[in-house]
């Protein structure tokens, strides 16, 4: 079977792993585009129902928490049964959740349809996709993960201006129906192009055949790559949870997520408070999305050379600088500069999280481990939107929220310096 896989891998000029990457990219584009366009709907919801910023932000907080908490389950299902069915089911929930959100007339309906149903739908858009792509690549793994993560930036660049245009033209209710239908027709078909691992196609991960061939010097590399791609090698979730590195990485993700989710949720309302027209304010989201694509691709490739930890450190420094710049940004050009730097930095961070998890814990339970780490995104995502809305209710501006975001990034930087690869006894 292995030799046949090697022969196939050598003979084939096209590697199916890139189809998996493309499908995962499309799923991430739509799913995260929906998530990061919620800020467009905040003011229309407040205006229609007279709700406070904290109440509306709470729906986004519930969305983020349910999405992150359920990622543990969807990551485990992906490890055991593959991504196709769970991604398709989640796409169905996301699309229907948005269509039902359009009919909301009370806060509990918004929380149920958007917060819970939508959150479940998005739970597949990170851990299952990243774990699946990781299994297909030995060489170019950082690049492949970076491409999938670029779907998040593409979604931000495309969906936020689209949502702003739809809301301005048709209102928020019809806009959610249109976006919900878009989720159904893209995510579900994309799910059926995914494959759990190269074994399903009789192939080896990209680069493994080369690593296992050659002289004695290359055999040392081969042994390392075998351990990285073997289904039985590495830490289980239970073993990983006994290490300090596991909990440090979780804490880093929490503080990083508070910053990212609060900023992404309120940069559009913040710009409108400054008197900037809605079209220009939406374009800041596009710049963030486009520059985050560049960050994901560039820093995904950089991580192949420097490793995930060093690359994440660089990205967090840039993110902190962007947040403190935002506190002084009042002119349009200053906000565009913020958007470009912040987008590149936060985008560059995204692919490093599964890369670091793979470097530390290997691939035995990578979907489950990355899924658990998404609990950090859930916690940070639950804090950020609610806190930002509450701060605005009290102060009338988002400046204090952005200051807290910058400080959270500094804390993440400090914690990162303490992460060390744990030792595991081999049997």
Q: Can you put this structure into words, describing what you see?
A:
By secondary structure, the protein is mostly helical. It is 80% helix and 0% strand. α2 (17-36) runs antiparallel to α9 (172-191), α4 packs parallel to α6 and α13 packs parallel to α18. The longest helix is centred in the middle third of the chain and has 30 residues, at 141-170. The model is unreliable at 1-11 and 214-231 (pLDDT under 50).
Short description:
With 427 residues, this protein is mostly helical.
Largest sheet, described in full? none
Count of the separate structural domains: 1
Please state the structural category: mainly alpha
CATH architecture: Up-down Bundle
Radius of gyration: 21 Å
Give the topology string: H per helix, E per strand.
HHHHHHHHHHHHHHHHHHH
The CATH superfamily name is MFS general substrate transporter like domains
């Amino acid at each position: 079977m292995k030799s046949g896989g090697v022969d196939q891998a050598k003979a084939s000029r096209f590697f199916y792993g890139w189809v998996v990457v493309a499908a995962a990219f499309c799923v991430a584009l739509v799913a995260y585009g929906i998530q990061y366009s919620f800020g467009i709907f905040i003011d229309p919801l407040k205006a229609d129902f007279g709700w406070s910023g904290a109440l509306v932000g709470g729906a986004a907080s519930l969305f983020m928490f349910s999405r992150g908490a359920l990622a543990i389950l969807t990551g485990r299902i992906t490890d055991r049964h593959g991504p196709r069915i769970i991604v398709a089911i989640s796409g169905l929930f996301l699309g229907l959740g948005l269509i039902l959100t359009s009919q909301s007339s009370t806060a509990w309906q918004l929380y149920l349809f958007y917060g819970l149903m939508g959150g479940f739908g998005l739970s597949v858009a990170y851990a299952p996709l990243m774990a699946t792509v990781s299994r297909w690549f030995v060489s170019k793994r950082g690049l492949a993960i970076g491409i999938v993560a670029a779907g998040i930036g593409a979604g931000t660049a495309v969906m936020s201006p689209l949502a702003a245009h739809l809301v301005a033209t048709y209102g928020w209710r019809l806009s959610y129906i249109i976006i919900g239908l878009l989720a159904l027709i893209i995510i579900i078909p994309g799910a059926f192009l995914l494959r759990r691992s190269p074994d399903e196609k009789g192939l080896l991960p990209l680069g493994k055949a080369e690593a296992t061939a050659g002289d004695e010097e290359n055999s040392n590399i081969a042994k390392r790559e075998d351990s990285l791609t073997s289904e039985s090698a590495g830490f289980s979730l239970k073993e990983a949870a006994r290490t300090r590195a596991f909990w440090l990485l979780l804490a880093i993700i929490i503080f990083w997520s508070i910053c990212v989710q609060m900023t992404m949720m309120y940069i559009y309302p913040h710009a409108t408070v400054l008197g900037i027209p809605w079209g220009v304010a939406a374009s800041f989201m596009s710049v963030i999305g486009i520059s985050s694509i560049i960050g994901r691709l560039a820093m995904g490739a950089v991580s192949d050379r420097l490793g995930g930890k060093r690359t994440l450190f660089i990205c967090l420094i840039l993110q902190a600088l962007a947040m403190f710049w935002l506190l002084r940004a009042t002119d349009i050009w200053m906000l565009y500069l913020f958007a470009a730097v912040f987008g590149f930095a936060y985008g560059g961070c995204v692919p490093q999280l599964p890369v670091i998890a793979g470097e530390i814990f290997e691939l035995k339970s990578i979907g489950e481990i990355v899924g658990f780490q998404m609990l950090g995104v859930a916690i940070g995502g639950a804090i950020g939107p609610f806190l930002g809305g509450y701060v605005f209710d009290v102060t009338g501006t988002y400046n204090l929220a952005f200051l807290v975001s910058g400080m959270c990034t500094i804390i993440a930087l400090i914690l990162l310096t303490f992460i060390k690869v744990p030792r595991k006894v081999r049997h």
